[in-house]
Every structure is written in structure tokens, then in C-alpha cells.
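Q: Hi! Curious about what Glutamate mutase sigma subunit looks like structurally. Here's the sequence.
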Amino acid sequence: MEAVTSVLRRVRVVVGSIGDDIHVVGITLLGHALRNAGADVIQLGIQTSPEEFVAAAVTEDADAVFVSSSNGHAGIFCPELVAGLREAGADPILYVGGNLSVSAATPWDEVRERFARMGFDRVYPPRTLPDQAVRDLADDLRARGSQNA
Ligand code: B12
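A: Let's find out. The predicted structure is below.
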């Protein structure tokens, strides 16, 4: 991970579970992985409102926001988060993952499309390993021509 570590040094990321979601294990692992890869992690924890995500992204001048949702309510809260960021003029790279649909029967392509249309740069299926997100963040920062890349 040495190459990734140097890419993520000084990168600021906001992590949390959105809305009424109380699932904490996924965001904890994700936060650790990002921190171990060199990022400054602002961990908002569970039950984070869209407004709290926006406030943290703006105040912390975040390069990226990682939204987790496991309880199936992501579709309710995520549009407000994206709208709030746009309203605030903030443009962090946006990631969402966890268990994004209410029913496992919903085809994954439909779920991914829905969140991509909302404005998320990457939409992750259940059981995505944190290392995947770390690698993608490094790639996305390079693609944006970040000074950290
Ligand atoms: C443990 C658990 C609980 C615990 C949570 C304890 C806690 N404080 O964390 C308790 C018992 C409290 C609980 C409650 C509920 N739960 Co629950 N829970 C689970 C369970 C069994 C495991 C979740 C977990 O910790 N997994 C371990 C971590 C490591 O994995 P993970 O969360 O999937 O995250 C991984 C990846 O997805 C990734 N990841 C996660 N987020 C993100 C975000 C990004 C950007 C990226 C890149 C990656 C990423 O990182 C992790 C590492 O790989 C799952 C089923 C399952 N097997 O997944 C159900 C599950 C998530 N729960 C479910 C439900 C429905 C509920 C309840 C609504 C039940 C109820 N009727 O009350 C409530 C939620 C209440 C609320 N307000 O949120 C459903 C959700 C279904 C849906 N989405 O439609 C699931 C899928 C069970 C099921 N099959 O029905 N739950």
C-alpha cells in the first residue's frame, strides 16, 4: 500500500452512516482503512443527518465523502445530502455503499444507476472491501489532478 499511502497523505475524508442508520461496523472498518492509508479521517459515526455531512464536508474542506447505509433507507436521505453539497458550493468526491436497497431482489444495476443519477461518483455493492475504496480514492484523486496525487 506504499504508493496509495503517499497519494492519500494530507487527503481529508468524511465518513459516516446516513440518516437513521445505526450500523457501525462497516464505517468503522472503512475509517480505519482510510486512516491506515494516510488520509485524515473525519469520522461522523452513525445516525448522521444529511445536514451534518454537508457541514462537515464544508468545514473540513473535505476531498471526499464516504456515505454508508445498511438499513435500506439510503434513498430517503442521500438526495438531501447531494443537494446540500451543491447548494454549499462543495464538490467532494462522493462515495456510497453498504446495503443500498430495501430488498435484495432489486437488481444491482438498478440500484447503482439510481445513486449514480443522484450524483455519487462511485456506488458500491454490499460486502465491498475497504481496500477497494482506498484504491478508488487514490485513482479518483489522480484523475482530478489533486495536488496530493
Ligand atoms: C449486525 C447487524 C445489525 C445490528 C447492528 C449493530 C451495530 N451497531 O452496528 C443490529 C442488530 C442493531 C441491527 C439492526 C437493524 N438491522 Co441490521 N444487520 C446486521 C448484519 C447482521 C451485519 C451488519 C454488519 O455489521 N456487517 C459487518 C460489516 C463489516 O459489513 P457491512 O456493514 O456490510 O460493511 C462492509 C461493506 O459493505 C463496506 N461498506 C459499508 N458501507 C460502505 C460505504 C462505502 C462508501 C464503501 C466503499 C464501503 C462500505 O464496508 C464493510 C467491509 O467490507 C446485517 C446483515 C449482514 N450479514 O450484512 C444486517 C442488516 C444490515 N440489517 C438489516 C436491518 C433491516 C436492520 C433493522 C432495520 C432491523 C429492524 N427491523 O429493526 C435494524 C436497523 C435499525 C436502524 N435504525 O438502522 C438488513 C438491511 C436490509 C436492507 N438494506 O434492506 C440487513 C442486511 C439484514 C437483512 N438481510 O435483512 N442490525
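A: A fun detail: The chain has one domain: 2-142.
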